[in-house]
Amino acid sequence: MPIKRYFDRIDAIEKVTGKALYAADFNIEGMCHAVLVRSSRPHARIKSINIKEALEIEGIVKILTHKDIPGKPFYGVIKKDQPLLAVDRVRYIGEPILIIVAKSEKQAQEAAKLVKIDYEDIEVIANPHQSMESLTLIHENGNLLSHKKVIKGDTEKGFEQSDVIVERNYRTTWLDHAFLEIEAGFGYIDKKGRIIITSSTQNVHYKRKEISRILNISEDEIRIVQATTGGGFGGKLDMTVEGYIALAVYHTKMPVLMRYSREESFISNTKRHPLYINYKTGATKDGKIKAIKVDIIGDTGPYISYSETVCLRAALHATGPYEIPNVRVDSRMFYTNNPVCGAMRGFGVPQIAFAHESQMDLIAEELKLDPLKIRFLNGLKKGSLTATSQLLEASVGYLSTLKAIEPYWINRKKKEGSGFGLGSMFYGMGNTGISNPSYGILSISEEGKIVLFTGVCEIGQGSDTVLVQILCELLDIDKKDVLLIRADTDLTKDAGSTSASRQTYISGRAVYNAALEMRKFLENEGFYKNRDLKGIINRYREKGLPVFEGFFDPPTTSLDPETSKGVPYATYAYATHMTEVEVNSITGYTKVIKVYAAHDVGKAINVKNIKGQIYGGVAMGIGLALMEEYIPGKTKSFDNYYIPTSMDMPEIEAIIVEDEEPTGPFGAKGVGEPALIPQAASILNAITDATGKRAYELPCDMERLKEKL
Amino acid sequence: MKISFVLNGNKVECEIEKNERLLYTLREKFSIKSVKEGCAIGECGTCTVLIDNEPHYSCLTLSSKVNGHDVKTVEFLNSKNGLHPLQEAFIKEGAVQCGYCTPGMLLTAYSLLIKEKNPDINKIKEAISGNLCRCTGYKQIVDAIKAAHSNKNWDIIPKKQEIEVLKKKKEDILKALTENKGYKVIAGGTDLLVKERKEERKYNYIELSNIDDLNMIKEEGDRILIGATVTHTDLNKNEIINKKAKSLAIACGTIGSPQIRNMGTIGGNLVNASPAADSIPPLLIHDAICVLESLGRIKEIPLSDFIVAPYKTSIEENELLSCIKITGLYGYEEGYEKVAKRASLAIARLSVAWAIKEKNGIFEDVRLSIGSCTPMPFRPKDMENFLKGKKREESVIKEAVSMVLKGIIEKSGMRPSYRYKLPVLDGLITKILRG
Fold it and tell me: Which of A80, A400, B94, B339 has its CA 20 to 30 A from that of A251?
């Protein structure tokens, strides 16, 4: 079905005029401000807390501790292991201990400084290797959080059949999402006594569940509404300010605003996991990969957050977009006293892509094969079996992304100091091996608008626009005829998180399904003859207008706990990037000159949005490859956490490849995370091409690279 | 105190507290929420506003500084007849994603387009290099700015409205400094206001804006006089500086971001005395002299003596650094190399300023200055003397470079960072001396 692919963002006008209100922009009469007192220690027992002086500050309304939590004191998206407020022990620097509520933010901050906490330090587990061996346990049940395995065929045999074997160790570090809007939210009690919270978030329904547990009140008593959200990248999936606001509102009965400072955001936000990867690849002389054996060790920090997902996703994607007959992956996550690691754009896959793409180039080098050729030789295609023995039946556009890059690769011209590199990836759409449904609900308003109710959080990626676009396309209406009600727990059904590149694919399909139903209704009512919606409304005044509910849950299966055999994802996105870099041999500084990025998106619904995702992903990939590094205890703010500026950006050519996914809306899949995943890998391969030296640690900044030159 | 200024075309007045910052004033006193806090230390650009049509970080601007000036926020672009062509271009090109950087980005773009009729892509990228965006990779933003320029529907340069305010005089400052020892002189604030936040303290500022005799660049004989409140942007663009102290012009063009360069001053940079300050190496090769004034007394002291330790100068509490005198260099090849982890908004990991006079393959005079390496930027005088009259050839260059490196180790011992810095310096100085 052909679609109009150009459609301006529906939220752009309020954003360019400065009228869009983000959570910290709200101001309610009589509003209080809440701040957190956080741990200054990475691992310690709390011996005593003295709030006497803090209470004397003018304007203090309340100081809350874990004892003030009426319900369950622990939260967590996968397991409830993280204390909302520390009980008697802290496990990372920045762990919240107290909430101070005051008339003004300044008063609350002043009081926070006066709180005296007496700690007794415990051995600090600084890395996963120490965690494995230490007798100090971060949690009672041991320091190993999770061990996921992917097993297919017989790796030993595969290596025996191989003519070349390459084994290397790779290392990545902590990264911060560095969304520009800092975490914030506000809450109040409405006239009916319900708690209303508006926040910067990627998931309203999950947060309502958590608050219901924390406050021990029914979900009906809570309403969470998403404010305009200034970027998430996975960092606003976990609870941030919401739980604290809820508790403060519950106890004070007053409106409360909480916003983190950038420094707090850095210290408290979940990070991208540092992974230590040992990767062994075996291939035959003609370039066929016969076996891989991969060991992944991750530093998860002291709490789970999304770490089990990251652990599993990294393992499931360890092959890269290649069909490999013999696979053994062991992925383990260990608790440490470093920052809590969680979801960040790609859930561990950008890290593992750095490893598998370096391995592909190393094998190609050993065999004197062209890097593009070896990818063609092994690439997934229709009929391939993945590492979980999933048969790929449709929408496998990997080879098409290689074909799209091929002319640029063949015509590349190396200059003094320059180099070219490839990076490929595949990425499963949606949550891993579990049901992750979404709904789209349509009705007609009294004013004659088509109303779309969706639980999807728009965080900047463009879901509002794409969902409305899908609706307009199917109903043949204009966006001004649509009223969008979004991400409000009172008015919408749970659409799942804005994560895992799933919203266009899953919620898009749910809206698509609802729109098909509505279309039938409108056709029957003669709407397409006279476009008279008001007439239909009048005719249905008595019996009420029908509501159309669309639903979609991608078909997946649960995975075998020993081998991960199964269907973790209904479909995958594929991509190949080619990057040209210039390396300054004196300083070790790498400049990215040009990027070609080919993405199989299934079907492009909104070309501008897709390209925007790709350009943004390239930027984040440049950060991951060359400059971003969160150093616990040292990184405080943007002055020592560098993300790319406009001047760090290369020319980018985004190439859209379409291999339609039958279950997606119009054939669409997702692109949010895929846009980032292969970028760092392609830069690292380009650096090797330029210098003859290979880096195994990210970021490959000028100092690390200079050491190799 | 009470300030009055022009806000989006209207004259406004308001009462401000001590040390109040413009970001706070605009958000809390005028309810302009389009001005966002993203870091509060001048590293992200979401709080960008235009002051006299130039982008500034409002988080590092004392509100007292805009007294009498023209301030614009994105609301200025919102006309009654719909969107401004620049806003339309942002929508059309897909330059908006999460929208948090958008108001600041639009203002920076607007400021560029009222000055430059047809900016190329590199100019646009440079102009917005002080506004971070985490979503877009900047591509569609650059495209939008390019498209907006070609839109012929607007080329009206807004009138810069000014309000008469009482101009301060240098003497008033000197008097105040004599009377009250607790004052901290602030001239830009891009370092001090960050320090204030990091140290969680409040200074008692005395502010140097709106003082004409501190804001000048002029020639006096073979000397160039630079007033303490001259901004990095001014130095980067000034004709005299570009002609006679090119390395200083280049170095000032690499400081922070466009906003930082519009705000930060040469005087502030020197008194802050960071080992990584970009302006210091070129000033050293121009034999800079600091003019320190106190009531009834003027003292001149070479820059190399003025800075006594990292972040420490010999300035007395009652003194004001009013002016810097430098020697213009004629017939020299000049330059400045900055080694930093990213292309904008970066601190120098290492820097070298140089001026070389050569005739027929013979070094007549070589001046070199190295920053971000030793506790204070310095000139390797032994190497400079060694090169006088020497042939420009490999063996000479090699010896010169090894003198510099040896000198550094003698000066500050073998530091861990030298593992990186010394080989880089070796390469850089060799390249510079080869020409």
Answer: A80
